């Protein structure tokens, strides 16, 4: 949906916004803006060319009511670039995480565990990741089929029956 030129422009706006906003690291802020960015990424076509009011409402749902965003909205309206907001926001979140050396991890299990089991397994997985600031969210996705999927911005690791079936279908995994 975005051209290469719009992607470069979005990154420039995101860098400028990060400098002007001068946010200090807060764990809740990181979690909220990361979840909002995931929403923007997953629903790109739904939110394409929406109004400032719609984006502000989405940000408020994720508790991202920073006054700096109103400044950004005004700037984008003046420059006729409002349609770039979701892309700018996602780039801003990426840059903010890099600046704060923060890693956001999505751990997906194939089925629910008790709270103690979930904490045990998640702690074992997160122990292998080295980052000063680390956040994680746990999901349950039954179509994973007896396994776990760990994802971040740079890494995706899956150990599941679903993965084995995909590899077998492509001919990468043979029958012993």
List keywords for this structure.
single chain; alpha+beta; Glutaredoxin; four-stranded mixed beta sheet; 4 strands; 55% helix; 14% strand
A few lines on this structure:
The protein is an alpha+beta fold and 176 residues long. It has helices spanning 4-21, 27-42, 44-47, 52-61, 67-78, 85-99, 115-126, 161-170; strands spanning 102-109, 133-140, 148-151, 156-159.
Descriptive notes:
The protein is of the alpha+beta class. It has two domains: 4-99; 102-170, Glutaredoxin, CATH 3.40.30. It is 55% helix and 14% strand. It has eight helices and four strands; from the N terminus they run ααααααβαβββα. The protein has helices at residues 4-21, 27-42, 44-47, 52-61, 67-78, 85-99, 115-126, 161-170, and strands at 102-109, 133-140, 148-151, 156-159. It has a four-stranded mixed sheet, with helices on both faces. β3 and β4 form a beta hairpin. The N and C termini lie far apart (44 Å). The mean pLDDT is 82.
